[in-house]
Structures are given as C-alpha cells and as structure tokens.
Amino acid sequence: MTRLVWLRSDLRVRDNTALAAAAAAGNGPLLAVWLITPAQWRAHDDAPCKVDFWLRNLAELSRNLAALNIPLLLRSAERWDDAPAVLLQLCREHAIEAVHANAEYGVHEQRRDQAVAAALQAAGIAWHSHLDQLLFAPGSVLTKSGGYFQVFSQFRKVCYARLAQSLPALQALPRIQAPNGIAGDPVPTAIDGFPTPSQSLRQLWPAGEAAAHRQLATFADQHLQWYHNERDFPAKPGTSGLSPYLAAGVLSPRQCLHAALAVNGGEFADGNPGVVTWISELLWREFYKHILVGYPRVSMGRAFRRETEALAWRDAPEDLEAWQQGRTGIPIVDAAMRQLLATGWMHNRLRMVVAMFLTKNLLIDWRHGERWFMRQLIDGDLAANNGGWQWSASTGTDAAPYFRIFNPLTQAERFDPDGTFVRQWLPELAGVDKRDIHNPAALGGLFGLPNYPRPIVDLARSRERALAAFKALDTQP
Ligand code: FAD
Q1: Which end of the chain is more exposed for a tag (fewer CB within 10 A), N or C?
Q2: Which of this chain's residues are annotated to bind FAD (predicted)?
C-alpha cells in the first residue's frame, strides 16, 4: 500500500507520530509532502525569518528522509483552500491509499484538515490524524464539570497528575524503506514576498534536528538546573532558546520532557526546581493550545474577556511606530524591540514588559502588538502569542489584573541591573553609567543624549490613564 505523510509544523524524522504511523502501516512506497502556501502565510502574518527557518529545516529534513528512502515532495497551493485539490491530485499521481498527518489546532488549520479529509475519503483514500504537537490533545484536560480550564495553575495540576502516572513515549525512528524510484523535489532557498533574513540572524538559529538536539543537550547539561533563578535575566543564557524549534516541530515536546526528566533522575514533580519550572513552561504551551480550541474567538481577533472589547484604545500610529522601531525613549523597551528586529526572538520577560508598555502606557490595542510580533517572530505561534498578548493586556485568561501594571524602569533595574542587555542593543547608550542607563532622560539638560529620544510618554501619568480606561469598563451598562 502506498502511503503519504503530509508534514506541516512537524519538521523532523525523530519522534514524529504521523511519520512513524505511516511507516508502520504497510510495505509499499512511503512518500512525504509539504505544501508551499504563500498567500496563507501572508494572511497569517508569518514572519519572513520564520518562512526562511522552515525552508532551511526542510532542506535538512529532505536529506534525513532521503536516507530512509522517503522522498520529500513539494507542492504549491497558494492558500489552504487549495489543499484538498492539490493533495487529491498528488494521491492520484502516485496511487496513494492512505494519508497521515499530525493535527494542528488553529481554526483555519482544523477547517483545512476537515476539507482535506472529506475530499480524500470521498475518493476512497484513508485519512489519519495524529496527536503529536502536544502532550495532551486539546479538550482532554478539562475541569470536573467538563469545561476548559481558564486558570493555568489548575490546568497544570491536572497535567502533572497525568504525567506522573504515565509519560508519553517517544516514537521510533521509521525503518529504512525499500527504494521506490521516486525523486524528492529540490527545496527552494527563498519564496517570493518573504525576504531572506540577515546572515547573522540565520546563524543564531541553525537548522535541522541535529542542531536542535545539540541546543537541547547543552541547555539540559548547563542551564536547566538554574532555570528557576536565571530565566528572568535577558542578558544571561538562562532560557533554552528552543521556541523556534518547538514552533516548527524540529523538536517535539516529548523530547523536551524526556530530556528534562533525565536531568531530574527520571523523577517527575519533586526534585530540581529548575526542571520543575521548565516543565511548567512547556505546559503553558499546552494551556494556550487548549484555550485556542476551547475558545475559538481568541484566534479571530476577539478578546477572551468579552467585556474588554469596549475598551477605549488610543489610535496613535506615531507611538505605535516608535514602539515597533525601538525609539520610545525607554531603554529596556527599545533594547527589547531591537532584539526582536535583529534576531526574530525576544526574551520572555521582555515580551511581557513591551506588551504591557504598549497596551497600558501607550494604551494601544493589543491586536496591533500581536500582529507586529507575529510578523517578526521566528517562533511565532498563534496560541502562545495571542495568549501572551491577552495576558499582558489584561483581556485574556489568567490575565494580569488591570491595576498590576509593570513599571518598565523597575523591571529594568530588577532584571538588567547592570544595564548589560540595554547596552548590547542600544550602542548609543554604551557610555552611560550604570546609575542612569535605564533612565537616561534623568541626565537631561545640555548633557542630554543627542542620539537617543526622550520618553514618548510619562510613565506615571500614562499609568493613571490606563487605570481610568479599564475602570470605565466597570461602569459600562
Ligand atoms: P523557555 O523558557 O526555555 O521555555 C521552553 C518552551 O516552553 C518555549 O520554547 C516555549 O515553547 C514554551 N513556553 C515558554 N513560555 C511560554 C508561554 N508563556 N506560553 C507558551 N509557551 C511557552 N512563545 C512562542 O513560542 N511563540 C510566540 O509567538 C510567543 N509570543 C509571545 C508573546 C508575548 C506577548 C508573550 C508574553 C509571550 C510569548 N511567547 C511566545 C511565550 C514565551 O515568551 C516564549 O515561548 C519564550 O520566550 C521562548 O523562549 P525559550 O524557548 O528560551 O523559552
């Protein structure tokens, strides 16, 4: 029987559930396909550096698949609406009888898969969807009354209990298939409309499973034990930097979980606090995917907390642009935004700081920030990005209460005490000493800084403005 595995956000041969299942399902030829869908990527604001990362990983994946005698075919389908016809055509060309894929959970992704499944089944071709991207299928971790958890700590408790009982096993590497005489397609090095990022950005994120596993091993060996203490300091290598690999599926969450538990002597909950905290971060990833499925409105631009839809956001395009380009005059915000532009990634603590600054101090709608992040991030993921933005804007699940507004100066003094991170990204502040680095406006006067803007907003007054805007929601009819 000829089988096809349709790869999407699961760009790996190791521990790939759909690939392992397809390989085990028969003895005939096994083919793989990936769809090039530029109009869909544009509609989803996928960043050029993320598309480039996919292509670089696909080139590696194609080689790894070829070593197993599984050709990787590439097909163009401008949008996902075209996917059923394109896949059906491919199945006819190669007399494919069964298609395997790992489930994806966005609304569009689910609709696409339903349409593909229906088209294939109508043609007598079997469709198999597998749980792979997550440890827990969305909808499988529910409250006692059968609803979706809205509070992370309660969700995590149930996940811990389940994982302590049984760990999801790693999938076997597919055995080498018999040669089938079908050649794989060359992987393009670029796609029109998605400019190739700088060489320095590419070097930060080397492609391929081998590179991802090296990074996981280094993190597990050298940093994981101190993760709970070090993860909030952006100048330190305190976090794993694995998010691009997890988002593209070059690594699986099971591989991460097993690597973390190995550091903890195989123990689950108790043990090294770094390990426990990191596993908890992996569960945030699960939580936001659950939210995406349980509350599909969040992936359609709507607030999780409906009452916040009435908030009087400011229309302030100049302030938005200053934030986007790292020119707000608040060094920690600007340094973080320039890190994002230069590397396609930002430290988690700073994602929260800049998101709060945009939505509270500038009182600009979180949707603008969410879109800008998605257009820049190499790890852009609808569920995590939306969840992070709505948390920061106090419109989401588990939301930070609106009156708890991070002060970016206090955050900077706490998490970048020597200004090392700020100096790295703002060379114009290189000569400013430690005392003034986070608030150079205080230098003022003739000795101000000609190359660095004054703050575009007064932090205390803008905080009061945000509080008033949120309070006004309480008095809405
Ligand atoms: P580590 O600290 O090493 O964590 C390990 C893994 O756990 C991460 O790689 C990631 O897959 C997952 N994880 C960690 N924190 C979270 C979280 N809060 N929510 C969901 N998953 C998490 N993460 C993305 O993967 N894609 C996004 O588009 C994204 N956008 C965000 C936007 C905002 C406003 C905020 C506040 C957070 C966002 N995050 C996003 C979550 C988090 O910032 C990143 O996952 C993290 O910074 C990635 O770095 P790391 O791999 O070193 O993380």
Answers
A1: C
A2: 227, 239-243, 278, 281-288, 379-381
280 is annotated as contributing to ligand binding: no
Amino acid at 5: V
pLDDT of 446 above 60: no
> Does 277 lie in the same domain as 349?
no
How big is the CA angle at 297 (ends 294 and 302), to the nearest 5 degrees?
140
Question: Does the predicted TM-score (pTM) go above 0.95?
Answer: yes
ipTM over 0.85: yes
**d(CA 384, ligand 1 centre) in Å:** 7
Domain count, the chain: 3
Q: What's the average model confidence in pLDDT over 350-363? A: 98
The number of the ligand 1 atom at minimal distance from the alpha carbon of 347 is 47
Identify whether 284 is a catalytic site residue: yes
Has 389 been annotated as catalytic? yes
The mean of the pLDDT values for the chain is: 95
In the reported structure, the alpha carbon of residue 465 is separated from the centroid of ligand 1 by a whole-number distance in angstroms of 29
CA of 179 relative to ligand 1 center, distance in Å: 41
Half-sphere exposure of 295 (CA within 13 A, CB side): 19
Q: What is the pLDDT of residue 420?
A: 97
pLDDT tens per residue, range 197-247: 999 999 999 999 999 999 999 999 999 999 999 999 999 999 999 999 999
> For ligand 1, which residues put their CB under 6 angstroms from it?
231, 239-243, 246-247, 281-282, 284-285, 288, 348, 351-352, 355, 373, 377, 379-381, 384-385, 387-389, 392
The pair phi, psi for residue 421, each rounded to 5°, is -65, -45
- pLDDT at 394 exceeding the cut of 60: yes
How far from 377 is each of 91, 155, 366, 396, 473, CA to CA, in Å? 34, 27, 16, 21, 32
| Pair (129, 140) in one structural domain | no
Helices H / strands E in the chain, number of each: 20, 5
Locate the ligand 1 atom nearest the alpha carbon of residue 240 and give its number: 3
The alpha carbon of 349 and the centre of ligand 1 are apart by a number of angstroms equal to 10
Domain range for 102 is 3-133
